[in-house]
């Protein structure tokens, strides 16, 4: 499998991929190794994860550079991701002992009732390329802490980063048969899902997630699907326009818009629509597009070349149906998968840009009459990952956010994830959850103990 730099087209490396035979062998190794790993005291498993953290700190510049080279992420944002991994590791290690210990829930002298937490066994983790450290860590760190073995398939677009992660795991003391990288494209992921694993944890598109759900549903195994979003933000009429415009623009264009929780739809109260649009466009025009390894770059290359055509179609469709193109609108000529940061005004819900996931530096702005109008439009989607409101009025914000059909809601912020809070979605944004203490327990099976003393 040839790995190329999306910013230049240059070959980075040619790597061997797994086959059905090697995947079966890797599964067998993981199945054999898992019981001994689970039998270790939790403090021993936690020590390896702490050692992993230390190795990430030592090698963070190398890891960030590799990430930028293979996915096109601006280097400063790659460093932010690698550094952002550390508090997630800290959270999982700190909380694991409390979450995984047995719980006594009743006792009257003669009868005691307890809840135990046993590992699932062998889990398959099919991860994403846009935030490989974040979305991978959300699965494999708590899974390992809980006593599972992990078959980890990084995205084919973040293969080198996935190989780094496996190398770091083994150097930290996780046995090679307990954490095993599976390398290849979607067909390799399909072969992995067909193994008799005890759980499948996938991050990616709705289309692929639906296929995985169909494949695993007949087997009655744990399946979690962290899928896409068409995340809305509403800007109310009482905001500081310039500040709100800058914050929402960052939420829409950070990581070149390639985030499942990136702002993808913006609704603006009609009273401030004109000044907001101007401030927003001014902010976007300041974003520097260029070499991901340049410290000044804010907008890098799109990781996947086919996405250029998706964005072109969305822009053409919006213009045809009456939207105003205010900046950008097309791929940038030259080497690499670059698309100019694009702002479309006066959009509506007949347009693809307001219905289908963009996953790139394209955003639509729409005027709304009032809070009720905004709320209805924000919920008018097949997705339900995140939703945000900008207003200084807490009561107003809470009233709107309480009606949002989304797993995560934001007041005066957006595109934010915390290890302390569960990450989940409604509708086509997925099933199950990661992060928080619930995101540790999800890698276990609860066992009910009824204990009579006489």
Describe this structure in words.
With 454 residues, the chain is α/β, with parallel strands linked by helices. The protein is 41% helix and 22% strand. The chain contains 14 helices and 22 strands. It has helices spanning 20-39, 42-58, 60-71, 75-100, 132-145, 159-172, 186-193, 206-217, 241-253, 273-285, 306-320, 371-379, 394-401, 438-441; strands at residues 2-4, 11-14, 103-107, 111-119, 122-126, 149-153, 179-181, 199-203, 222-226, 231-235, 263-269, 324-327, 342-345, 362-368, 383-384, 386-390, 408-411, 423-424, 426-427, 430-431, 433-434, 444-452. Strands 12-13-14-11-10-16-17 form a 7-stranded mixed β-sheet, with helices on both faces. The longest helix is centred in the first third of the chain and has 26 residues, at 75-100. It is globular. The termini are far apart. The mean pLDDT is 97.
Rg (CA only):
23 Å
Note the overall shape. Answer: globular
What class do helices, strands and sheet pairing give? alpha/beta
Q: Ends: how far apart?
A: 64 Å
**Strand order of the main beta sheet, please?**
12-13-14-11-10-16-17
Helix content class: 40-55%
Tell me the number of strands: 22
- The number of distinct helices, counting runs of at least 4 residues, comes to 14
Low-confidence stretches: none
